[in-house]
Amino acid sequence: MIKLSDVDIAFHIQENGFVSLKDFALNLGKHSFLKKKYILKDIDLEIYEGECVGLLGKNGSGKSTLLRTLSGIIIPTKGKIDIRGSVAPLLGLGVGLEKELNGIENIKLLCALMGMTKKEIKDLMPGIIEFSELGDAVNWQVKRYSTGMTSRLAFSIAIMKNPDILLIDEVLSVGDIGFQRKCQRKVEEIMSNGATVIFVSHAFEEVQRMCNRAVLINEGSIQLDGTVDEVGKHYHSLFD
Amino acid sequence: MSLTSITNKGFTNAVVSLAVKTLKVRYKNSLIGIFWSMLNPLLFLVILYIVFSQFAKGSDASLNYPLYALSGLIFWNFISASILQVLTSFIDNGDILKSVNLDPIAFPFASMLAAIFNLFLSFIPFLAILYFLDYQLSWSILAVIPYVLITSVFVTGLGMLLGTLNVYFRDIQLLWTTLMPAFFYFTPIAYPPSLIPEKFQWLIKINPFYFFIDAVHQIFHDGEFPSMENSMVMIGLAVGCYLLGYIVFMRLRKGFISNI
Hints:
The complex is a heterodimer.
Chain A: E1 2-13, H1 18-26, E2 35-47, E3 52-56, H2 63-70, E4 78-83, E5 87-90, H3 103-113, H4 118-132, H5 147-159, E6 165-169, H6 177-192, E7 196-200, H7 204-210, E8 213-218, E9 221-226, H8 228-237
Parallel strand pairs in A: 3-7, 3-8, 5-6, 6-7
Antiparallel strand pairs in A: 1-2, 1-4, 8-9
Helix pairs in contact in A: 3-4, 3-5, 4-5
Chain B: H1 8-27, H2 36-59, H3 65-87, H4 89-92, H5 94-99, H6 106-121, H7 123-132, H8 144-168, H9 171-186, H10 201-205, H11 208-220, H12 228-252, H13 256-259
Helix pairs in contact in B: 1-6, 2-3, 3-6, 3-8, 3-9, 3-11, 6-8, 8-12, 11-12
């Protein structure tokens, strides 16, 4: 279960140059030299186990920031976030991949970055290799991979943890059609095991197919929360 | 700190994996790999020997100049390179920092760890060279382990302080790369401190790097454990720098995502 009560998320931006640094140093860090810029304000959201929620909104409305907050990367400026269960964020796909290393080394590296122990990685390794369908290519340096192969590797690493909560930021459309279908099946499998999915996508059909609830975010606050069709109508009217 | 805080075991594994990655990538397509980190000090030694050895000998007849200069150079390279690697670690790993839930303090730790690995990997060939330079193996070599530990704490603190500020003001990185060569000449690495005129001696004592290089000279050139006074200063600098770096990092980390 995920519960956000009265959450504000601000970016801390440095814009006054060295003057503010001097002020910061002279006051021994009591005056912050960072200016707050609110990205999301007064967010109240409750998502229950097993739900699949689509987040809709224009570019820059704060969808990705909300996912980053749910995954613990951004700490909210105000408010309370209550999350029960393990979270797997599928944000920037392929981030952390090291092109000079081979597939297996990259699997170990990325899993480690996600906080797994050596043993957990060893247990997941065969599954990741199998899911990626890379075969012998897992022993190649990633710089020799095609774009599609790189995405397959990255997606397989991100998805194999079987989390309670899955956060997806526009990453389902990777690889060829065969692999896309496989990814969707995997997400559906995770969902059928009772996991919660929060899904950001601009492909409305995808949201329609997968989600049973949608939330429209506009200019940093939740404008509408309801069925996919209802929220979809509003979403499309934003662009009229 | 984070909402879905990762286990300590996972954190350690992340730090080690990042450090191993750094080393693997550095030497992946290189023929002589780790020997590169020896070539630089050896090349410098030749130049410095030609320029400085007469000077140095003049001030202290018992000085074994090549041994003195090379041991200083090896550790100066370790200190200066690792400060820069820690300093840039947040920015270098910006993408990871933005999309993986990993405490950003992992990046300075990993850079430091990679630098330590690198130092110890190059240590055996270095000992062989030092042996040819009349280095007498003694128990004092054991002091290297606590020495590297204390130095690493100092470097991590200083690097974290500069690295945190560097996220907001990229000038820090440029300033530091300008200052480092100056510090190389300002610190008695390849010349004995007695070469500095009496009236400028106080300048040496306000340079924190002096104490860390002096300890190396004591261990390798004099074959002694670093003096109590020197050790105390190093520990003080390490703890002070680390605390300062950590406090500034904790205060300013909230802006990392929006400023990298």
